[in-house]
Structures are given as C-alpha cells and as structure tokens.
Design a protein that fits this description.
Shape: globular
Radius of gyration: 28 Å
Number of strands: 38
Strand content: 25-35%
CATH class of the largest domain: Alpha Beta
Length: 679
C-alpha cells in the first residue's frame, strides 16, 4: 500500500552523525539487533572495507525497515564533498529527507551543498539536530542558522531538556510531555512525564510559536487558536504533514544518536510528516513517440516505468542496478525495455537490499526501490519501461571531474584487467572518467577530488587486484570559445571506389556556464533520419576531443543551420566526418581559450589562526568571499584556482597546529591567464 511507504534519505555534512543516526533507526525498528559504531568500523551501512578503515561513508547504502506497519526505504548518503554524485542521485529518487545537523556546528559547508541539491529536486525534509550532549550544543542556534542561510521556516515540534552534559531528553510540543530515554536499555525504555514547573513557560512559548506558524496556513486552526480552544492533536499533525510536504516549513527535532536519545520520535516524525510516494507531484517524463512532456502518476496499475539511479558491481552477480519504480510493476524473468538505448533486456532477479545483504522479491511496484540483476546495458540515469509507452524520465546531471592522475599497469598482464576495472568503476560512478591522452600515450583517470581518486585507486588495487602505478594529481582543464562563428564544411572523398559527399553549415557560440548544447534547425524533409544522427554523433564526440590541446570542451552551443544532401553520393560516414571537421574549424576561428577549474573553499579555523589561514588562500591566488563567526570557530568562504590548491591541507595544518580544516568543491571554469604556458 503506497500510503504506508516512505522513501527517505539521510543527508548532512561529514561527521554530523548521519550513519550513527541511521544505525539507531535500524536498531529501534528491529532491523538489526546490535548497534554498530563507525569508530569501531562496525556500522551496518558502512560495509565497504575503506569505509570502515577511513570512518566515512563513501557509497550511498540502501536498506528497508518497518515501523508501525509502515515500510521505510532508507538511503544513507556520504557527507564528504568528493562523493557529491552519490547524494545527487539519491535525492533524485527520494520523496523526503532527514537533514542531520550538528548542534555545535549548525549549518556546515557540505550541509549547504546537500540542502541546495534537495531544493533543486523539491524534496520535503525534517531536521534532526544531533549531538545535543556535546559542549557548545545549541538547538535554537541551529534553527536560526537554517533560517538565515536558506530562508527556510523552521518549526520546532520538540525542544531539548537541558544541553551539553545536562541534556536529558526532549519536550514534545504537540503532546506537551517530557520524554527521557533510559541509557541502561540503550534508549529503548522511554519515560513519559508532565513538564516540570521550571520548563513549562519555555515549552508554552515555543508551543505558541509552533501553532502560530501552523495557523498561518490553516484558517480552522487559526480560529481555534484565537478563541483559546484546545486544538485536537490529529488536526495539528495533519497540518504539519501538509505543510512539510508543501515545503511551507521544516519540522525540527533534536537528540543525540550516539547516546541513544530521542531517535524513536524522529522515526515517528518520518512516518507522520514525510510524504508517501503518491503524495509528491507526479514524475515528469518525455514521450519519445509523441515528442511531448507527460506526467507519470504513481500507481501500481499503470504502465511499468522506473529509473536506474545507481549501478554497483558485485563479483558474483555482476551489475546491481538500483531502480526507483515510478509506475506499474516488474517481476523477475520479465523483459524490460531500455527506452534511451531502445534495447530489450531480461530481469533475472529482483532483490530488496539491506546494505550489502539482500533478499529476493517476487515483484516490485510503483513507489518502491529495488535492485535488478541481469541488466547488461543499463547505466545510471536510464529509464526502463515498456515499448508501448516509451517515456524518458528526467536524466541525472553530474558535476564535471576536476582532478586527474595518470595510471599505468605494473605488468602486461595487468593491462586488460585495468581497462576492464576502469570500465566497471566508470559505470558505477559517473563522476569518474578515464581516457587515453593522445599526446603522451598515458591513461588518465579523473574525479572530483584527491580523496575521491585515492578511494577509487585503492579499490582497484584491493578489490579488483589490479597492479598499477599512479602519477601525481593534475588539474583537468577545459577548452571553450569566446566568439561566435559561422562555418560551412564540404566533404568529398572516394573511398573503396565509391564517392562519399556531405556539406554542413554550422553556427558556434559561447554558452556561458550552460555546458555544451547541440541543436539542428534543418527540417527533415527528404533527408533520412540516420544522416541527422550521424551529424549529432560527430559533433557530440568532438565535444570530448577538444580544440587545440585535446582537453574536453565546455560551454559551447552548436547549431546546424544547413545540410546539402545528395541521395546518390551522400553517406552517414561522410556526414559524421564532415561534422567533426566543421566543428574543429569553426572553433579554431572563434578564439579558443583554455579554462581552469575554480573551487569553492570553506575553511573552519579557531579564531586565533584565522588570519594565517586567510593569507594562505590569498597567496595561492584565492579571493576571500565572506566570513562568518561561530562560538568557537571562524568560517572563511573563498574561491581559488584548483591548480594552486595541491598540498593546501598540509600547509593549513602546519599554520593552525592541526586544528583548522577545510572543504573544497568545484564552482566554475574560468579562462586561465596566459593559457597553458603560465604555470
């Protein structure tokens, strides 16, 4: 039953307590019978060897649990910025999210990134202010932080009893009761009591604030509130649910997952306030035959339609395709149609995942998340459905890789193994790419940051047993143009005794911060469809091969304005080759430039070292954007060229006695002054 299902994600800055919170949710819902700690390398959701060794989440892990007869599909996402693609694809398929905030740090840099991603996909969310037992914990400060930074409306439905070492439990503002969680029974035994006299006034003040906010969206509640009448609990809960789903406000809860305090009320809130799959707006899709946008209502009786949002390689089963179902149902043994690739495939098995363990399913229906085994061609972002209703769900968009290293096999026997492994890893992670450098003959791998590449190289060596030597990190540059140009290219060759002709006119122009785009303004008429496909293929492949230096192109808009087609001599080969030549020539005329990646740098530093930290950034060509003060730290927001940021962590540690930290994420590409000669 759809109304009894919740698809949620746990998202936060690194070290805010996502995995710890998820671990407690699984324990209290009876999914696991022993709480595993990250510090011990025993967390259920961090099952990869590297996750256990490094103490961080690298891959999003999926699991399903049950609470009060509700099915909750949970995806625990990474917090580190290098693995932002994992968060991105998880949020794309989720109906709701729990944002975990650190009660001490409040909104931290990576919180901002995941919050913006959740806003982009219009995901309703709750906030859980964790670590209330830590020194410097401030529940109300965290609420204010969210309000100021995101313009969101926080709605406290709980307030803490005490803080820091005096944190005892929570006051429920709906029931107006105090709740304490027994440490002897790992928080399972809950004590309910009346609100003590010294806390009653504060609780009443915050309850009034809560009802005031809810009443601004509901006339019935407003009327009861103004008349001083008792508002039924169910009425309040129904309105909080409606407001949360509409993103009018964000319910705030608090607790300490590590100390097993106030996690059960969070699970209740997930069930009570986050949407069921059929309560969010229907998924939008493009009908390939009708060439129009359609909506896909979430109903089990509809045409089967699902989105592959993640691929994971398993040594025994091959590719595990994580699929979110938007409509209809699929059974094991059935044929599915990959709409984008226009290919049929057979689903051998369908599994329900619990981290790295699984159980077989007889059927997966609309709204659910499952793993399909047997799909050979499927990639992240593919839509699977039926030929009768060929609809393409909105694809997933990932950031461009910004850092590269060269990699070479240690022995000849490792060469094929390395290529095969790189293929598997690129399929798993769309932000990881590999290419052959035509000039040096080296194999180059690219990713989102030094940690990202380090993790993947370690996986190659440990999991796939590939012997490889890795070079020093290099910046991944891009090429683009600064002017608009029109160009007409003619192709006329005799190949194998047959004449091949083609003529194309194209217009190229800069496409500021909008990526590469291709459009064709020529009507089909008598020209076969495969000719248009050949031209598009030629142009799109050219985007990846560069203009002058062989770096991929970015921010170029190409429009085909005219095609000369001869039914006797024109071939698809000729048009593809002609398109490549036309692109190269047009871009050369358009003042091609080399672009370098610029990073957003967020430094968290104790107040006494903040001056040294700032001068470090400015010495490396960085620009300070803004600063904000927290009780014990200063947060510096800056932008700096990626090429200058290698070794920054060592320098920062040495000037701050190891107490400052920083996070970096890609911001944009800008023209590199002096081009490649200026290093």
């Amino acid at each position: 039953m759809l109304s009894k299902m919740r698809n949620i994600g746990i998202m936060a800055h690194i070290d805010a307590g996502k995995t710890t919170t998820t671990e407690r949710i699984l324990y209290y819902t009876g999914k696991i019978h022993r709480i595993g700690e990250i510090d011990d390398g025993a967390a259920t959701m961090d099952w990869m060897t590297q996750e256990q060794e490094r103490g961080i989440t690298i891959q999003s892990a999926a699991t399903t649990t049950y609470w009060r007869d509700y099915q909750i599909n949970i995806i625990d996402t990474p917090g580190h910025v290098d693995f932002t693609a994992e968060v991105e694809r998880s949020l794309r398929v989720l109906d709701g999210a729990v944002a975990v905030l650190c009660a001490v740090g409040g909104v931290q840099p990576q919180t901002e990134t995941v919050w913006k991603q959740a806003d982009e996909y219009k995901v309703p969310r709750l906030c859980f202010v964790n670590k209330m037992d830590r020194a410097g914990a401030d529940f109300f400060g965290a609420m204010k932080d969210v309000q100021e930074k995101f313009g969101a409306v926080p709605l406290a439905i709980q307030i803490p009893i005490g803080a820091e070492s005096n944190f005892e439990g929570v006051i429920d503002l709906l029931k107006m009761k105090e709740y304490r969680f027994d440490p002897e029974t790992e928080g399972e035994k809950i004590t309910e009591s009346e609100i003590s006299a010294e806390r009653l006034e504060q609780a009443q003040t915050w309850r009034e604030k809560m009802i005031d906010e809810i009443a601004s969206h509901n006339d019935e509640i407003a009327e009861l509130f103004l008349m001083g009448e008792e508002i039924p609990l169910e009425t309040l809960k129904a309105e909080i649910r409606r407001g949360t789903i509409n993103r009018d406000f964000i319910p705030f809860l608090c607790g300490s997952a590590r100390k097993n305090t106030a996690v059960q009320p969070l699970i209740d809130a997930i069930v009570d306030y986050l949407p069921a799959p059929d309560e969010v707006p229907p998924a939008k899709a493009f009908h390939t035959k009708k060439e129009e946008e359609v909506e896909i209502p979430c109903v089990t009786s509809g045409t089967p339609c699902g989105l592959v949002f993640k691929i994971q390689y398993d040594r025994e089963a091959g590719s595990l395709c994580y699929v979110r179902m938007y409509s209809g149902k699929f059974k094991p043994g059935e044929q599915v149609f990959n709409v984008g690739k226009k290919k049929r495939e057979r689903v051998n098995r369908i599994l329900r995942m619990h981290s790295n363990k699984s159980e077989p399913l007889d059927c997966v229906e609309a709204g659910d998340i499952a793993v399909f085994i047997g799909l050979k061609l499927a990639q992240t972002g593919d839509t699977i459905g039926s030929e009768g209703m060929p609809v393409l769900l909105e694809d997933l968009h990932f950031p461009e890789p910004v850092i590269s290293v060269s990699i070479e096999p240690e022995t000849l026997s490792d060469r094929d193994k390395l290529k095969e492994t790189l293929e598997i890893l690129s399929k798993e992670d769309p932000t990881f790419t590999s290419r052959d450098d035509a000039e040096t003959g080296q194999l180059i791998i690219s990713g989102m940051g030094e940690l990202h590449l380090d993790v993947l190289v370690t996986r190659m060596k440990d999991d796939f047993k590939v012997g490889a030597r890795v070079g020093n990190p290099q910046v991944t540059y891009r090429e683009s143009i600064t002017q608009s140009t029109d160009h007409t290219e003619t192709f006329d060759r005799v190949i194998g005794g047959k004449q091949n002709t083609a003529q194309i006119s194209i217009h190229v122009e800069p496409n500021q911060n909008a990526g590469n785009t291709y459009t064709c303004n020529v009507k089909k008429g008598d020209i076969p469809g495969e000719i248009f496909d050949a031209i598009e293929s030629g142009i799109v492949n050219s985007f990846g091969s560069g203009i002058q230096y062989g770096y991929p192109c970015t921010d170029i808009a190409v429009t085909v304005t005219d095609i000369k087609y001869d039914p006797l001599t024109s071939t698809t080969f000729a048009f593809e080759a002609c398109a490549v030549a036309a692109f190269d020539e047009a871009c050369r005329k358009s003042s091609a430039q080399i672009l370098e990646p610029v990073m957003n740098v967020d430094i968290l530093s104790p107040k006494e070292f903040v001056g040294d930290a700032m001068s470090l950034v400015t010495q490396r060509g960085g620009i300070i954007q803004s600063m904000e003060s927290k009780p014990s730290t200063e947060v510096v927001h800056a932008q700096a060229p990626m090429a200058q940021m290698f070794g920054f962590s060592t320098s920062l540690r040495s000037v701050s006695q190891g107490r400052a930290s920083f996070g970096m994420e890609f911001s944009h590409f800008q023209i590199k002054p002096g081009g490649l000669n200026n290093f």
